[in-house]
């Protein structure tokens, strides 16, 4: 058995539109700047802390705001779509003998709703990290439960915080270029793989 673990938002799901709307819904209440889609492009190579400063986002209020944003996601999950080619890629990986899991900071309920909506049956398990920077703990637990060495798992994602988490537990990381963070942010963390399409991802994993 081969194992691949995916991030969700920005890797499998094109959820940026819903998150922008959710962000803007609470901008006045929590006194931070609203965003438009172009802002995501302009800030691709900023850290989370730099983005927070840029948009005057109160990071200390994140535990209050994030559940509201995920609730908004649930209510508007029908607006979230898979990136082109993702479903075929997941089907092909499953046929090649990969066990596919998801690890995300989004809620398990939201992800499972989306998988049902998109009729995806190839994902064996959905794991979540309640902390924005806590995925390494979940990955470590997964490896222990499955009795796997780090090299037996590949994590696929789009954000530098996920590479840092994987580096902590020595799990190979594959960065996808169609997500949130830009290559300038990613390069210094030296991901093992860099791919630019689901087809290239599939060919790289083999």
Automatic annotation (TrEMBL):
GO terms for biological process: DNA repair. GO terms for cellular component: cytosol. GO terms for molecular function: phosphoglycolate phosphatase activity. Keywords: Hydrolase, Magnesium. The keyword Nucleotide-binding does not apply. This is HAD-IA family hydrolase. InterPro entries: HAD-like_hydrolase_sf, HAD-like_sf, HAD-SF_hydro_IA, HAD_2, HAD_sf, PGP-like_dom2. It comes from the Bacteria. The keyword NAD does not apply. It comes from Niallia endozanthoxylica. Pfam families: HAD_2 (PF13419).
